[in-house]
Amino acid sequence: MTEFGRAQNRNAPRNAATRATSASVRARASSWIDDTQGFIVDLDGTLVRGNYVIAGAVELLERIKDRYVILSNNSTDTAFGLATTLRKLGLRVEADRLILAGEHAIRFMAEHHAQARLKVIASPAIRKFAERQGLRLVDRDADFVVLGRDRRFNYAKLNEIVNELHRGASLVVTNPDLSHPAEDGGLIPETGALMTAVTACAGIQPDRVVGKPEDTLFLEALKRLGTRPSDTLVIGDNPATDAIGAVRLGMRYLLVGTTPYADATSPKGLLSSPCLGHAQVPFASPVARSWSDSLDDSVRTA
Ligand SMILES: [Mg+2]
């Protein structure tokens, strides 16, 4: 469906003709749910915002039961801790359905660099998780600096990190987001903001970014679902991470929220959407346009 087609669907008047075809629309609306084998669902802005569950989120997960994972650039919590928090909000999600950037960055290091010396700058929960994985956490002479959202980040830590990198350590960043929305409409600084300070000072780029829109988390999601990209649909709210990450790997996507590219404002609206998902990135989006070169590269090498 084109962008125009999507806008027309969202804004279609509730006239007699529309009502007359409501039965067929409902039949088609169920097809994106029934005809898709696996769903990769974003969390913040898609299912929850701050401390409340977005309209239709519970119903959506009920409809796609046993066929979804939740993929989030969250680098603060472990899956177990976040599942507990979500349950208190009214969203029942098993921990093994949550794939989180911070936790997965640690899993990635445990799998691929088990003997390495790691300087982990992240939340206490993520540092503890790294210790439980048996990784070697050090203050200096690290092989890798793993950078996540550390709410106690300060000048001293910046000084330590850039000198580790200057000495030759590699930089692994959990997620590239600069901020995420606060419940009151403000901004909460994210890992990408810390990364920007580090890379500006050290004059290097990260060796790996784990979170969306990069491939690492999406590939883990496909592995857990056991589905092929062509049978998998991404549901998110961010064209620059959810849509581009999906298209890079050959998956379709649907967006919720208030951007001009959204298929519905909430999961509740998405449940009655006739759209089967999009295979193209909304290149008109200024935020998405900045990723178009890397997307072209990935398409060429796919
Ligand atoms: Mg989101």
Average pLDDT works out at 86
C-alpha-based Rg, rounded? 20 Å
- Classify the helix fraction into a percent range: 40-55%
Describe the main β-sheet briefly: 5 strands, parallel
- pLDDT < 50 stretches: 1-29, 291-302
Report the span from N to C terminus. 23 Å
**CATH third-tier fold name of the largest domain:** Rossmann fold
> How many domains?
2
Q: Give the overall silhouette.
A: elongated
Overall CATH architecture of the largest domain: 3-Layer(aba) Sandwich
Note down, in words, how this protein is organized.
By secondary structure, this protein is of the alpha/beta class. It has 2 domains: about 130 residues, Rossmann fold; about 110 residues, HAD superfamily/HAD-like (Rossmann fold). Helix content is about 45%, strand content about 15%. It contains 15 helices and 14 strands. The strands form 4 sheets. Strands 5-4-1-13-14 form a 5-stranded parallel β-sheet. Strands 7-6-8-9-12 form a 5-stranded parallel β-sheet, with helices on both faces. α8 links the parallel β6 and β7. α9 packs across α10. The longest helix has 13 residues. Bound molecules: magnesium ion.
